[in-house]
Amino acid sequence: MIKPLRIGTRESQLAVWQAAHVQQMLAQHGFESELVFIKSEGDIDIVTPLYEIGVQGIFTKTLDAALLSKKIDVAVHSMKDVPVQLAGGIAQAAVLKRASHKDILVYKGEWSMVDSQLQIVSGKLNSPLIIATSSIRRKAQWLHRYPNIVIENLRGNVNTRLKKLEQNNWQGAIFAAAGLERINLRPENSIDLDWMLPAPAQGAIMVVCNEEDNFAKEACNFLNDDDTAFCTRIERDFLKALLGGCSAPIGALAVIENETVKFKGNILSPDGKQKLDIEKMVAKNDAADSGIRAASEILNNRGNEIMKAIRNEGK
Questions:
Q1: What is the largest CA-CA distance in the chain?
Q2: End-to-end distance of the chain based on CA atoms, in angstroms?
Q3: H/E run at residue 4
Q4: Which residues contact 172 (CB under 8 A, 6 or more apart)?
Q5: What is the signed CA dihedral for 48, 50, 52, 55, rounded to 10 degrees?
Q6: pTM of the entire predicted model
Q7: I need a surface site. Which of 54, 73, 80, 167 has the fewest CB within 10 A?
Q8: Each residue of 195-244: pLDDT tens digit?
Q9: In angstroms, what CA-CA distances link 158 with 106, 115, 133, 134, 271?
Q10: How far apart are CA 132 and CA 67, in angstroms?
Q11: pLDDT (tens digit, 9 = 90+) per residue, 104-152?
Q12: Is 314 helix (H, G, I), strand (E, B) or coil?
């Protein structure tokens, strides 16, 4: 008798939802499974900014260790949290169909009041507006657009961050739409930040397994969404080719429309003062390496200077 697949997950509400979603999808294809809860380093330290504690793998390495020691058979992650270079012995088993890729602003008070303050800030006048985020990418893009706003650090799972927003004198905080929407926590007082380019693979869920576990690979293959896997690989190739980790101020989005891949990417200095954008439209059949090519173009167009600023910021 085949044992149920053991699905490793962090203990946050969102992580458990994602793991349970995978469990349901496996059941639809006739595979039994059970959830195994594991606390990650990223869940233990919810105070220190991510970019100060070496964010690459902070939410994944504990689960990686459990996979390699065969305490679990698969692990489920928000794909944007997974390092572009998987740990040795770990393999990508599936990428689920992407939900919303967007960032959103959850604001306090009337939107008209917050928006009016943003308009003042965009005119480079002094303003007391305070926005919270732990993401260096979101911080850099926000400061590029609104240079006079104060950015506060905000750590914790989505429930904790929403509670902190209520308790502090901030005017708003930035979240990934998919995370709040999956667990029905997106507040009415929120707006899509259509101008903000998401993290590579934002909104997608990745399932990983031990690279030698053929049974887990075969089971998870039923869950894979080919278009999402293709687009997120382009985005992560862009990130990897820029030598950036999960904490770098790099945004990327690839979408497929009528057999054409539309790609947008950018890189910013941590203070938001420098920004380089790139947009490409490539036939899907020719797009496999488009993330790498876009990164090369960025690097040759002063991108190396920005990457140097990013590395200096991390020292």
A1: 69
A2: 53
A3: none
A4: 105, 106, 107, 108, 114, 131, 132, 165
A5: 140
A6: 0.90
A7: 167
A8: 999 999 999 999 999 999 999 999 999 999 999 999 999 999 999 999 76
A9: 12, 24, 11, 12, 25
A10: 34
A11: 999 998 888 888 888 776 555 455 789 999 899 999 999 999 988 899 9
A12: coil
Nearest to 18 by CA among 133, 95, 103, 85: 95
**Which tokens sit at 163?**
């509670």
Three-class SS of 258-293: CCEEEEEEEEECCCCCCEEEEEEEEEHHHCCCHHHH
Picking from 218, 246, 301, 243, the residue whose alpha carbon sits closest to that of residue 134 is: 246
In angstroms, rounded to a whole number, what is the distance separating the alpha carbons of residues 143 and 274?
10
Quick one: CA dihedral 22, 24, 25, 30, positive or negative? positive
The answer to whether residue 294 scores a pLDDT higher than 80 is yes
Which pLDDT value is given to residue 45? 38
Which of 134, 127, 166, 167 has the alpha carbon at shortest distance from 150? 127
Active-site positions read 81
Q: Can you tell me the distance from the alpha carbon of 181 to that of 17, in angstroms, rounded to the nearest whole number?
A: 11
Looking up tokens 């979101």 gives 138
Place of tokens 């203990």: 11
Overall average pLDDT of the 252-274 stretch: 96
Burial group, residue 13, by CB count within 10 angstroms (0-12, 13-18, 19+): middle
- C-alpha span between 239 and 269 (Å, rounded): 15
Strand order in the sheet with 130-132: 150-152, 130-132, 172-176, 103-107, 190-192
Contact of 211 with 186, CB cutoff 8 Å: no
